[in-house]
Automatic annotation (TrEMBL):
The lineage of its organism: Bacteria, Pseudomonadati, Pseudomonadota, Gammaproteobacteria, Pasteurellales. This is 3',5'-cyclic adenosine monophosphate phosphodiesterase CpdA. It comes from Ursidibacter maritimus. Binds 2 Fe(2+) ions per subunit. Its cofactor is Fe(2+). InterPro entries: Calcineurin-like_PHP (IPR004843), cAMP_phosphodiest_CpdA (IPR046379), CNP_phosphodiesterase-III (IPR050884), GpdQ/CpdA-like (IPR026575), Metallo-depent_PP-like (IPR029052). Fe cation 2 binds at D63, N93, H164, H204. Keywords: cAMP, Hydrolase, Iron, Metal-binding, Nucleotide-binding. Residues 15-207 form the Calcineurin-like phosphoesterase domain. Fe cation 1 binds at D21, H23, D63, H206. CDD domains: MPP_GpdQ. SUPFAM superfamilies: Metallo-dependent phosphatases. GO terms for molecular function: 3',5'-cyclic-AMP phosphodiesterase activity; metal ion binding; nucleotide binding.
């Protein structure tokens, strides 16, 4: 989708919820390392609705399905319907682009736009970093050109960039081999707009990060299913509960953000699992 989605009349602070890596299955009882991903995703959606945070829209940052079945996308669309806010999405390594696009296009709540213009101070840009069939990511020349074009189009706006893959290492060898493969090409595109870029958010690593890369703020968000423990060279699950992220974008370019998690640990994984 080449044109932009415009939110013309939002309040001065833009509020966003990020959900990521739900890894849904076609069947009701599909489990990822013991976690029933549909139930854990439902618990996160229920918790989001119980929060006082009055968000304007939702970013879903990839790995919406686990089993390469388009039914998972229909399930996603039906499950998010009660949130009653626009949802924007991008592809993760577990997603199948054509099936994802075709299935989600059937739902009016779910938007295909990758450039979101919010009021007159911000734009959110959604990048596709997935490479069909393999876990690691990369930004294609087409994606990098699109990003450069969109940054140049609104040089007065603050920018939040979203993608699926991590740029910074997690200090976990098994996971870091699946990072974004060409971060320095991204850095080259961002450099002329350094003062516009206020944050880069992603999923993929199933853990919370609030850090810095080349002076850019990097935010990563827990999955709505299994959690990966940081600083572990072998595959290691984390008993932390499932989560999501709240973001507040201020007119002066400041981002306030926090991760929220379920208040209970109903969905513990099978800790004997060796990979996913
Ligand atoms: Fe994932």
């Amino acid at each position: 989708m080449k044109d932009a989605y415009r939110f013309p009349d939002l309040a001065s602070i833009v509020r966003i919820v990020q959900i990521t890596d739900p890894h849904l299955f076609a069947s009701d009882d599909g489990r990822l390392l013991g976690v029933p991903t549909i139930q854990s995703f439902q618990a996160v959606l229920d918790a989001i609705q119980q929060e006082p945070f009055d968000y304007d829209f939702i970013l879903a940052t990839g790995d919406l399905v686990q089993d390469h079945n388009r039914e998972g996308y229909h399930r996603f669309a039906q499950m998010v319907k009660p949130l009653k806010k626009p949802i924007f999405w991008l592809e993760g390594n577990h997603d199948l682009q054509t099936q994802m696009h075709n299935a989600l296009a059937l739902y009016a709540q779910i938007q295909p736009h990758k450039q979101i213009l919010v009021g007159d101070k911000w734009q959110v840009l959604m990048l596709d970093s997935h490479i069909e069939g393999i876990p690691k990511g990369a930004l294609s020349d087409a994606q990098l050109s699109w990003l450069a074009e969109k940054l140049a189009e609104y040089p007065e706006r603050n920018v939040l960039i979203a993608l699926h893959h991590n740029i910074l290492p997690t200090n976990s060898a098994w996971l870091d081999q699946h990072s974004l493969a060409n971060p320095y090409q991204l850095a080259t595109v961002l450099e002329p707009f350094r003062h516009n870029i206020k944050g880069i958010i992603h999923g993929h690593i199933h853990q919370e990060v609030d850090s810095e890369w080349l002076g850019y703020r990097i935010l990563a968000t827990p999955s709505t299913c299994i959690q990966f423990k940081p600083n572990c060279d072998q595959f290691t699950l984390d008993p932390l509960p499932q989560g999501w992220r709240e973001l507040e974008l201020f007119p002066n370019g400041t981002i306030h953000s926090r991760v929220k998690r379920l208040m209970h640990n109903t969905f513990l994984p099978d800790f004997n699992g060796w990979g996913y």
